[in-house]
Design brief:
The complex is a heterodimer of chains A (about 150) and B (about 130).
Chain A (H helix, E strand, L loop, with lengths): L6 E8 L2 H17 L4 H22 L7 E8 L3 E7 L26 H8 L2 E7 L2 E9 L13
Antiparallel strand pairs in A: 1-2, 2-3, 3-5, 4-5
Helix pairs in contact in A: 1-2, 2-3
Chain B lengths: L1 E8 L2 E10 L3 H15 L4 E12 L1 H16 L3 E5 L3 H9 L7 E3 L2 H6 L16
Parallel strand pairs in B: 2-3, 3-4, 4-5
Antiparallel strand pairs in B: 1-2
Amino acid sequence: MDQNQAIHRAIVLDSRIESVDQAEATADRVAARAGFDEGERHRITMAVREITVNAVMHGNAYDTGKKVTIEFSLSPSDLVVNIRDQGSGFDAAGLADPLAPENLLRQSGRGIFLARAFMDRVEVRPSSSGTSVLLIKHRQARRPLDAPTRS
Amino acid sequence: MIQVNYRQIDSVTVVDVAGRITLGDGSTLLRDTIRELLDKGEKRILLNLGEVNYIDSSGLGELVSAFTQVRKQGGDLKLLNLTRKVRDLLQITKLYTVFDVRDSEVAAIAAFDPEIDSDAAPSPGM
C-alpha cells in the first residue's frame, strides 16, 4: 500500500455516544494507512475521540436532528482531521486550564487539552452554525517509501 | 469493553479493572463499583489498572471522582500497575501528582494508613 497516497474521507455521524467509537475506529484506520506507529495512532485516535465527544455532548447536545461530520485528509506531509458539529459554537479561549491546581480535581474539562497535547496543531473555529475543530499531525518523521535507509 | 472485579486483602479492597475506561459503560461500571464499596464501608481502595489499555478524558474524570469520593468519606484510594499509556496520560494531565501510584500490590497495601476508620469488617471478595 502506498502510504504517501493522498486520501480524503468523510463520515457523518449521529449525535450519540456510539458515534464516538465509530470516529475513533475510522481515525485508527486512516492513521494506520498513513504509516503512523502504534503510539502515534493512539494519540491521534484519542484526539479524535475527545473532540468528537465534545461535538456530540456539548456542540449538538445529543440532538438527534444534528450531525457530526468528520473529514480525514491525508497528504504526503500531514494528516488533517476536521470535526464539525451543528451547535451554537463555543469560546475555546474561555476554557479553564486543567493543569491549574484549583482545577486538577475537576471531573471534566480535559478533552481539548489532550487533543492539543497529542496533535501538532489544533484550531478551534466557532461559529453560529457550529464549531469546527481542525486536528493536524505532521508525517515528516515517517518516510516509508521515499527515504530508504543506507548503511 | 471493561471488567471490574474486587477482592479483599486484609483491610484493603483491591479493585481489578480490565479493558477501557471511557465515556459510557466503562465509566459507569467503575463509578457504581466505587459507590458500592463506599456504601459497604470499604474505605481503603486499591485500583489495579494493570489490564487497562485505554482511558479517555471521561475515564480520567471517573478516576478523579472516585478519588475525591473516597477521600470525602475519610478513606484513601491508590492506583496500582499503570500501563505506559495510562501513566503518560496521568503525567500529561498532572494527575500523577494527585494520586499515590504504586507498582507493587504488597507495598501498596502496606502503604495504606492504618488509622483510616473502616465501617466494615473485612469480607470475602467477589
